Amino acid sequence: MRKHLLGAAVPLVVTTAAFAQNSVTLYGIIDEGFAFTNNAAGHQAWQFQSGWVAGSRWGLKGAEDLGNGVKAIFTLENGFDNNNGRLGQGGREFGRQAYVGLQSTPYGTVTLGRQYDSVVDYLAPLTSNGSTTGFIFAHPLDNDNTDNTFRVNNAVKFSSINYGGVKFGGMYAFSNQAGGFSNNREYSVGVTYTGAALSLGAAYLQANNPGGNANGALAGDDTNFVASRQQIWGGGINYTWEAASVGFVYTHTTVDSPTASVYVGAFNILPSSLKFDNFEVNGKYQFTPAFFLTAMYTYTKGTFDASSGTSKPKWHQAAVMADYALSKRTDVYFQAAYQHVAGDTTGTALDQAQVPGAAGMSSTTSQVVARVGLKHAF
Fold first, then answer.
1. Which domains, ranges and CATH numbers included, belong to the chain?
2. What is the pLDDT of residues 281-306, one digit of tens each?
3. Positive or negative: CA dihedral 12, 17, 21, 26
4. Which of 55, 93, 264, 275 pairs with 286 at a CA distance of 20 to 30 A?
5. Are strands 330-343 and 225-226 parallel, antiparallel or unpaired?
């Protein structure tokens, strides 16, 4: 009898041990709020809008221990609008992330699929919008993608382990087009250092013919610019002292022969080149463990080169946010942002203010957006 019981118990123990080496986690965020835009095509707008501070999402992530410090990993992450239940990211079921890969303890991680680029991974966390505040703190037209306007398809990504606070990585995304290897491909690299008080980061990205076709690295319905080429590079620094932190980020974006932007639509005047230089200063103060206040100012210098000449528009944008945590997973917040367009006019929609996330483009050179929201993580 004891032998029979022992024989039945052994496979049970082995099965339990096998399950203990594997894990699948369901997670998500629901971010909902009430927003006001003072001027959207000449009118005020009051709206419920989903996912400003953190895009509303749910996802599955898992790992299987393969032994010798190696794991198989995956992530499937869906974005959605909780006002109407629609899928986000152009109706994609797992539009935020969808990848599988291998993780090695002594070397790093290689993942394959739809993923974030190196600007998002290594530089965006030093910006205000890429760390705690979200959409309305983004730079004009999110020209540097620090607020995740696009994800990258067909991507192979390497992420290193932490070497004394230093991490680095890179990505290459295929065009998936026969006879056009470089047509709608993307590649990017980045590095970051995180210490006790100091954080540094830098990244570079290039996309060839973004939005040029539906199956490439940056699909036409999933890119902030449709152009012949987009380059982004920049660096940032953040310093924390007790309850206060302050940061500075510089990014440069060059867009060659752009025809349209997801934020302003098609350009009625087609420039040969559109450039943005973004200078951001941000700060945060943690008054109590449950309450913080953060603010940001960004100055953006533009260069619009067209056959009619060169124009140099400028954007001034300031924003503030107060956040109070009701629990470890639920917080309420208030945000407000102001944008003013100055400098030369281009004769295009770039001449009107548009805070990212606003109800529409302003009819003037200024715009104010405010929001009260509730965010819950699970």
1. 24-377 (2.40.160.10)
2. 999 999 999 999 999 999 999 999 99
3. positive
4. 55
5. unpaired
